[in-house]
Amino acid sequence: KKIQGSQLLNSQERSYSLMMKGRKVFVVGVGMTRFEKPGGRPGFDYTVMVREAVTKCLLDAGLQYNAVEMAVAGYVYGDSTCGQRGLYQMGMTGIPVVNVNNNCSTGSTALFTASKLVQGGVYDCILSVGFEMMERGSLTTKYKDRPTPMDLHVRAMQSTTEGADLNPSSPFAPQLFGNAGREHSNRYGTTSAQYAAVATKNHKHSVNNPYSQFRDEYTCEQVSSSRAVHNPLTLLQCCPTSDGAAAAIIASEEFVIQNKLQSKAIEILAIEMVTDMPTTLESGSCMDIIGCDMSRQAANRAYTRANVGPKDIQVIELHDCFSTNELLTYEALGLCEEGMGGLLVESGQTTYGGQWVVNPSGGLISKGHPLGATGLAQCFELTNQLRSTAGKRQTPGARIALQHNIGLGGACVVAIYRKAYEVDDTPGDIAENDETQAKDIVDEFIQNVDKQLKINNADLIFKRSLRLNLYSRALHEPPTVYYVGNNGAAKQDMNQAGRYMDLSTTLVTMADIIRDSREGLVNEFYDNGMLISNDITETSKKFDSLKDLTKSEKLNHKL
Out of 104, 238, 286, 379, which one is annotated catalytic? Predict the structure, then answer.
């Protein structure tokens, strides 16, 4: 039977309504590598980066790999089944592995897929991982013998007349986003300095992000005077190509409660995907070609599902592949009225002290843009923001966060997060700034760890690491008043909520992972995000060298 257009629309609306009634979905673990210049880190192929990101993710969640029921892997450049190849080293458990590719929104597409499967009750625990090994320079078309996914978009741009600069020497991506910025300037008077202000803000934010590819601060004048790419864009307003990976574990509420993950759980209130609509190609607007309409529709759906609005959000990670796109996305997300994005960034409302902190990670412009990893790196940042574990990047009072990730060709994903469970702050046993009291509590935790560790070398590593991360901090980082609340979580009176006592659980979990890995492939240890070794003996020697616990610069070695 032929379905009429109105019938099809009603069917889609019913399906969307049913989908909205699914189960609650949570992020319970996140991990990522530092983003690197392509080829800048020797031996950093996609298998290495997947192993690092996923191992960190499992440690963060306190889970073993055999708890994962399915995996969704996202990458753009690579042969088929790279997801399997990257994950098999974690364990060949026979779980379904689905590989996804949605251009620059690939990472968030993996997150979207996992979230909807958990929401629909198909699985309770899914791993999303995104990774990319890229080439230096601007993005290019790989296959010359077939239509490109972007040929319709480029053709539409070439037919526009509103301020477009069709310079054939410019790479196609800066042309598209640069021309969208020119169109916005023609309509609303947005200035080149306002676009440069976006990049200046994000470069400044990146200084505090150890995972960022670039961590340099620039003045607005330096940004504006850097090499021209495609008017109004200069080099420092364009994201770089990058190598890197990020991962997140998505779980149902039942799984969270069964595994006592409430203190880590961040709820995904909404995650919506929208692909190109007729306006993309038919409106004659470069702003629509780069996805402003997609972003607006995805954001509206997410706000409706989450029952929140822009003013309820405190922190945002959005797709600033170019400074023009961030400014246009302010308007698409409803942060300001159309045409007012330039004034918004000038007013300081998108940085610390303003209405929102946008791209505290440094965004794509500074952090980097490995296509398959970007969406999950945004999830990593927002999860830490809502846990209050973002360090110097922390947004004060962050309760609700928004993620925006777009890929031309096209797909836009918008997600809204919140901290799911409040931690019980009722104080229990107090370990004040007294060496004896602090040592007693830490030693008790070490004894509990000792009971569960079976590998001698691992036992040495974990005990020493525990002392470095608990005991030395308690003695050398005032104000040092720690206590164990009724829920077993560690707190600190004057600083952000600590997870020092929770490290004991993480360390035991790591020991279990090592014990369960038949080939020792998961025996990875990291120092400030960098690989130390997958050899237990060598790693043990490195920790043995840290004998002087009073030197604060040596107290930051972590697994």
Answer: 104
